[in-house]
Amino acid sequence: MKNRGWIGIVLMLGVGAGGCGSGDNDSASEAPVPDLAADAGSGSPQQQGELGAEPGGSAGAGAAPTGANPAIPPAQAPTAGPGTAAGSPIGVAGTGASAGAAAPAVPPQSWDAGQDDRFEAVGSNPFVLAAHDPFSTFAADVDTASYDIFRQQAERKLLPIADSVRVEDFVNYFSYAYPAPAADAEHPFAVSLAAAPNAFGRDTTLLRVGIQAENPPPFQKKPTNLVFLVDTSGSMSAPEKLPLVQYLIKHGLDVLAAEDRVSIVTYSSQALIQLPPTAVSAKAEIAAVVDRLYAEGSTNGAGGIQLAYEQATMGFIAGGINHVVLCTDGDFNIGISDPKLLVDFIKDKRASGVTLTALGFGNDNLNDVLMEKVSNAGNGMYSVITSEGQAARYAEDRMLRTLMHVAKDLKIQIEFNPEQVEAYRLIGYENRAIADSDFRDDQVDAGEVGAGHRVTALYELVRKGETIPAPERAPAAKGGNPVAGEREAGAEDLVLVKVRYKEPNATDADAAKEVVSRLAPSEIGGLFDQADQDLRWVAAMAAFAEILKESPYATPSQLGALREVFASQAERDTERKEFLTLFDATVAVLPAP
């Protein structure tokens, strides 16, 4: 079979941490894999690897001792590999905690602040005077982890920690009816603009910017090489952690082709190769390895990240998807302790054609800040998996589709006409800002857009001559002398939207392409209720997220109006119907406005 018929996926599994990334490298070549299923069964798990160790060579002084794999109970330790029969049900090592304790009769109103979750307080974007700086520039982002965390807490009748709320994750979680580009369109995505009066407590205007990527032809999928890097430390023994990881991996096998490749690396007290690159045609053997994974020991898998990328290199498929999936319950030690060095390492590997995604599992110990950073560095999509239903949805709808990029380094710049707009603020994307001067610097890294995906952003505008809202605790509006930069918006424009991107296989030296779209003042709708349903949902969702975020711009007095929007669209799809239930559960524990 030709190499282009393979999809190589490397999954990195480890308790307490995870990540994945992707990239293209002209120098990367596909390692020969003459008989993957046979190779997978040729011996005991390999030794721990370390940064700097030669692929396939000795791990050196830090190598794990040979013998039984601590990720598999001694009684079930395999002697052959994927060719052996499936083991008995997953064992759970004692961790001193009782998994599945009953919830209190009266739930608290907020997440337990004593847990070790780590979130970044990114604040809220201020209003910016258009006469001072008409440019708003940011990188595309389609992560959903913040919404995943909200869902997890709402199901437990808890409020999310305010710092865990990223408005863009809430907005981008849902699908929208933006028009897709025509099959023969010059660019792989289309820009959709809409504006209407704000209906949620302020006399301002809302502008929605939607970007819809082209849909792939039916049944078209690139060959895939996946590496699962799995955390198997003791904290992963809870039902919503390692067992859910195992469910996701086995469900994911059903969406892969027989010629695709899967590898499994685990880390706990040591890092081990549980499964070298193996053809998915050996599904039963792969599932048997997955079933025998066992949570035990500390989270100190030095070399885990290196081992995962080594497997990705061994199974590399030129022109295919080569991806590492990091599965963890939060904080992690996978061989590089310095966060900056870890991010730089993942970026370097991305340049070689291997991308990385971080998936979080469980209710505690989540290092949200680092998980988001490593996913961004790996061109992956950071998510938190909270149930079997979410695991199945991720495997079916996101695991591969998010990696089939139609554009990379996608940057968005909105230019406001100061003759029409007094001030503006971008709602969300606080940690995705890009310097205005970097918009046309094609060396600056930005976001990726997968086939069929969409990116949405929402702005609150103050029209010319109107008063800028200044609620309590809000940051001061940014003003001053006009910033440098050529003004390209015409006198007839309300806004000029510029989207810059590169083709998925473009090199750093290749020039980016640019798409321009405009919206005139006459195109602002007269009433919010008459705006298209996508704009109404986006506006209501952003307003709700700002309430949870405790933003100074939040309007909790508008919860009733928000519910009307959500209820009116609850039958559009399963996600919206589910959200209405989550919304009601959350409002029940919100403090009174």
Short description:
The chain is an alpha/beta fold and 593 residues long.
Give the helices and strands, then pairings.
Layout: E1 8-14, H1 36-40, E2 128-129, E3 135-139, H2 145-155, H3 167-172, E4 189-197, E5 205-213, E6 224-231, H4 242-253, E7 261-267, E8 271-279, H5 283-291, H6 304-314, E9 321-328, H7 339-351, E10 355-361, H8 368-377, E11 383-385, H9 388-398, E12 405-416, E13 421-427, E14 447-450, E15 454-463, E16 495-502, E17 513-519, H10 533-549, H11 559-568, H12 574-587
Parallel strand pairs: 1-7, 1-9, 6-7, 9-10, 10-11
Antiparallel strand pairs: 2-13, 3-12, 4-5, 5-15, 7-8, 12-14, 12-16, 13-15, 16-17
Helix pairs in contact: 4-5, 4-9, 7-8, 10-11, 11-12
* Fourth-tier CATH superfamily name of one domain: von Willebrand factor, type A domain
Termini separation comes to 64 Å
At the fold tier of CATH, the topology name of one domain is Rossmann fold
Total number of beta strands? 17
**Overall shape:** globular
Topology order in helix (H) and strand (E) letters: EHEEHHEEEHEEHHEHEHEHEEEEEEHHH
Provide mean pLDDT, rounded. 80
Low-pLDDT stretches: 1-114
Could you tell me the strand content as a percent range? 15-25%
User: Percent range for helical residues?
Assistant: 10-25%
- The DSSP helix count reads 12
What is the name of the CATH architecture of one domain? Answer: 3-Layer(aba) Sandwich
Largest sheet: 7 strands, mixed
Radius of gyration: 24 Å
Highest CATH level, the class of one domain: Alpha Beta
Q: Class by helix and strand content?
A: alpha/beta
